[in-house]
Amino acid sequence: xxxxxxxxxxxxxxxxxxxxxxxxxxxxxxxxxxxxxxxxxxxxxxxxxxxxxxxxxxxxxxxxxxxxxxxxxxxxxxxxxxxxxxxxxxxxxxxxxxxxxxxxxxxxxxxxxxxxxxxxxxxxxxxxxxxxxxxxxxxxxxxxxxxxxxxxxxxxxxxxxxxxxxxxxxxxxxxxxxxxxxxxxxxxxxxxxxxxxxxxxxxxxxxxxxxxxxxxxxxxxxxxxxxxxxxxxxxxxxxxxxxxxxxxxxxxxxxxxxxxxxxxxxxxxxxxxxxxxxxxxxxxxxxxxxxxxxxxxxxxxxxxxxxxxxxxxxxxxxxxxxxxxxxxxxxxxxxxxxxxxxxxxxxxxxxxxxxxxxxxxxxxxxxxxxxxxxxxxxxxxxxxxxxxxxxxxxxxxxxxxxxxxxxxxxxxxxxxxxxxxxxxxxxxxxxxxxxxxxxxxxxxxxxxxxxxxxxxxxxxxxxxxxxxxxxxxxxxxxxxxxxxxxxxxxxxxxxxxxxxxxxxxxxxxxxxxxxxxxxxxxxxxxxxxxxxxxxxxxxxxxxxxxxxxxxxxxxxxxxxxxxxxxxxxxxxxxxxxxxxxxxxxxxxxxxxxxxxxxxxxxxxxxxxxxxxxxxxxxxxxxxxxxxxxxxxxxxxxxxxxxxxxxxxxxxxxxxxxxxxxxxxxxxxxxxxxxxxxxxxxxxxxxxxxxxxxxxxxxxxxxxxxxxxxxxxxxxxxxxxxxxxxxxxxxxxxxxxxxxxxxxxxxxxxxxxxxxxxxxxxxxxxxxxxxxxxxxxxxxxxxxxxxxxxxxxxxxxxxxxxxxxxxxxxxxxxxxxxxxxxxxxxxxxxx
Length: 830
Description:
Helix content is 14%, strand content 42%. The protein is mainly beta and 830 residues long. The strands form eight sheets. It has a 16-stranded antiparallel β-sheet, with no helix packed on it. Strands 1-2-5-6-3-4 form a six-stranded mixed β-sheet. A three-stranded mixed β-sheet has the order 7-9-8, covered by helices on one side.
């Protein structure tokens, strides 16, 4: 019927411009009539032109199978070509009828593959920026090169620099065939950032009730260029959109419920500066009038109104209303959810708007009380589950409580084993049976700490090395495979520490804490041992007949109290110290022993939300440490000046009082105000015996004197030299403080909050002083200072920091004590 000789083909081009810039075609035999398509049986489909792709896969994708009857020309060929174009892999596609035998046609698909990206390079981009930029790019080595990918890559670069304030970035694209890799193209983005564009002026129009300045201050990240060098003036589109919302939110807080931004525009002032015009509509200011409650059966309307703390005549503040209803710790929602009403919902509805007054109807759906069914814990890869569950306040069978969930998060954060920024809890309610499953999601973080530090004290440098395992497990000591590097998982604490200056001074300590003695109640057991040696040897290995050795042991029992509330704790600690002196000059006596047996009781309350970067809560303690009053019953005459020092101080006696308080307040976002107050007093029983030669206070500096000679408590006060605020006792020829106070306030802002590190900046004001006698005590006669600082917390090393402080007040007999000083910080302060 058709002649078998191959005649010249007639080119038929299908319009597929939406998929490619190349061409696609069907070449058919001359005696095939394009105007009258006919049916053919597909004898076979072959593919030519491929270099890297699989031919059979593309034949299957083409969708025209051998033995299938199709129309030529027809939809089957057209749809097959479209499918190939959609892959974005080809720059040209041609379908050719290569032979016809009777009513059977044979087809070949001739393809031209797009080149592949063999290398991506940048010019005009800093090395420090390239890694960040590569992470954002969707174009990768090995991708087939398309105009879409190139355009998307260029837009990514422009957006990347736009967020840094470069709004006029230009990009020139170079493509070069790779001479090494077949079908490879080397792509280079030549980036010209041009000048960084900053905001010259922000003009606000239409505002009458609120000034331009107040509205500009509500724009958190969009600022005009002015004298404030700490305030960025770069323009970032996303931040600008957020800041427009901030303006409207501020208007809403002031009662302007209808406020909106009518229009805004950005214009060029010059190549380095832009200006912003914002036009607002304020509308009238509204006030609350009548607030009614509907649907409440659990609590009466009067009680709910008292919890809401909003009344007739108050400014209509939608933000404050949302807080009082839902987000505050003492909100109406929290009130219900603490009593099991998980399915509670409240919808404030404006039922009447008249002039400047609004009537609200609080429409409440209480639902049924929900009971906790399962408590699920995930993410603890190191800490044993029983350690977590004993800190969980939401127990199966109990009513759902929002406050108990918040308390659980706080207690888990206090363990220090999990990243508080990643902790989460997901309630999974089942309304059918009125139960809820709680899923606590945790992420372990390393918190064992290695200390390697140095300090200066008593005119010598002292080096320290120590290690603290904060998630130790004593019960797994003999367990095979548990030493990685030590047995862990039970939240016990084991610390080892050593200090030395080489030969003169050596100190060793070991401490162990079990936070849940017996595993059933939050009763802690703490044990510590320490030994200090000072001698006049010249070498580390050398012994000496002149020495002072101090050995001690303490055992403490602490428990969590239920009253006045369950944040209170009570700690009792029994201490024993022995001072052994041999031919030791410069002390109260040269030979003999002095012993200290004391009992210390500490009553405290700690509601701080987390230990590393706390945002809210308080931590205070009051403690009394006392020895028996030996002088009242040993019949010794302490007025006898000939009494040997070893006899006078054989058993040391004193009573020591301490008070410490911290308070954290979240100012805005993660900006935190931390205040601190400390007080200490060392008293005596016998006036003739006087103050104890031990357990005094040393005030001033960074609080790291290197080591402790005679049991003195070192208290830092920035802006002054170490120990410079401790009064000098002429009679004894030493600095000794028996009473002190200290006040400080810090404003902190985090720079990094992650499991691997926490970094925050701070500014502080501080004041304090120390006195020898209680009769000299003047609590408001303090030495003042101020400064700035930086803190870095690394799980392996603990907290490190540096402060610059300036002491404003002159110190008697020490003119250089104040002024400008840098201080280094190691460890967590109280």
